[in-house]
Automatic annotation (TrEMBL):
This is LLM class flavin-dependent oxidoreductase. NCBIfam families: oxido_grp_1. It comes from the Bacteria. It comes from Streptomyces longisporus. Residues 18-293 form the Luciferase-like domain. InterPro entries: Bact_Lucif_Oxidored, CmoO-like, Luciferase-like_dom, Luciferase-like_sf. To bacterial alkanal monooxygenase alpha and beta chains.
Length: 326
């Protein structure tokens, strides 16, 4: 059994044949249900110009969910620093923290949130990719503005999101809790966590290393049903392997009819082996093994499946079989 806290990452998948507005309705219901299930945190990811993922600003979804819930921690996982002025991030999340004391997290990441170069440049007013130094300065400025400029009272809890050793090193330098994207770069996880713990410097934000590991989790009554539910995201991932971010999120039936190349099958199988897909007992073991090997302080589950009911069922099964005391 897992005894550390577990949270949820909402990526707002837009179902094939559904309206984007329906996805927004699902995010509201999802927030209410994961709070009822006892999950610690619910974070929202920033994405842009994707047919598979809604372009819903994390700050807006956080505000909406905070009005619908009463206890679960809410925030960004993450808001992408290169796309925003640091003072605006500080004002937005500082305001949320003042309105909902003790419940707001500010998870900061680096990526563009899109695979489309014109969209990335539009988000950055024509600027190119941010450098390491620029990213560090943006994160540091956001933290400084939270304290020196906003000063509305209770502060949001800042986290640095990373999928590489470089991102983990920055979290260590700034003394921030680290949220590691095992669901994106599982091969980097252990080296990055080792570097973070070895180089960590205490700060006003965090006295000791704190690690949250995000893992893709698809739990169903049987292995076969979990594989069926994971099929649509496999199609999207296969597109990403080819550098394509324009793949819609298909139905499970459409995904079952999709033909993968042998190379795609090998890559997807290797990825799944490092995540938690399957029956309740299998998922419980996969999650427990991940906690043991990473020494994580918290887990966060991301469940990119087609229907809201199936997604919620996955979280219910994990709650019952893997973590009854989340």
């Amino acid at each position: 059994m897992i005894t550390i806290p577990i949270g949820a990452l909402e990526v707002a998948m837009v179902q094939s044949g559904a309206r984007v507005a329906d996805t927004l309705g699902d995010t509201a219901e999802f927030a209410r249900r994961v709070e009822d299930l006892g999950y610690r945190r619910l974070w929202y990811a920033e994405h842009h110009h994707s047919p598979a993922i809604g372009a819903f600003p994390p700050v807006v979804l956080t505000a909406h969910a905070a009005a619908l819930t009463s206890s679960i921690r809410l925030g960004s996982g993450g808001v992408l620093a290169p796309n925003h002025a640091p003072i605006m991030l500080a004002e937005q999340f500082g305001t949320l923290a003042a309105l909902h004391p003790g419940r707001i997290d500010l998870g900061i990441g680096r990526g563009p949130g899109t695979f489309d170069e014109p969209t990335a440049r539009a988000l950055r007013r024509g600027a190119g990719p941010t450098t390491d130094d620029e990213y560090r300065d943006d994160v540091a400025a956001t933290l400084r503005f939270l304290v020196d400029e906003v000063a509305l009272g209770p502060l949001p809890e800042p986290w640095l999101l990373a999928s590489s050793t470089a991102g983990a090193a920055l979290a260590a330098e700034l003394g921030l809790p680290l949220a590691f994207a095992h669901h994106i770069r599982p091969d980097n996880t252990l080296a990055a966590l080792d570097r973070y713990r070895a180089q960590f410097s205490p700060s006003r934000w965090c006295e000791r290393p704190r690690v949250l590991v995000c893992v893709e989790t698809v739990c169903a009554e049987t292995q076969q049903e979990a594989a069926r539910l994971a099929g649509p995201m496999d199609v999207v991932k296969a597109g990403l392997l080819k550098g394509r971010g324009d793949i819609p999120f298909p139905t499970p039936e459409e995904a079952a009819a999709h033909s993968f190349t042998a190379e795609e099958e090998r890559a997807l199988a290797g990825f799944r082996a490092q995540q938690a897909h399957g029956s309740p007992d299998f998922v419980a073991k996969q999650l427990a093994d991940l906690v043991e090997v990473t020494r994580a302080d918290e887990l966060m589950l991301v469940t990119p499946v087609y229907a809201l009911a199936a997604r919620l069922r996955s979280y219910e099964l994990v709650r019952r079989h893997a973590a009854p005391a989340v």
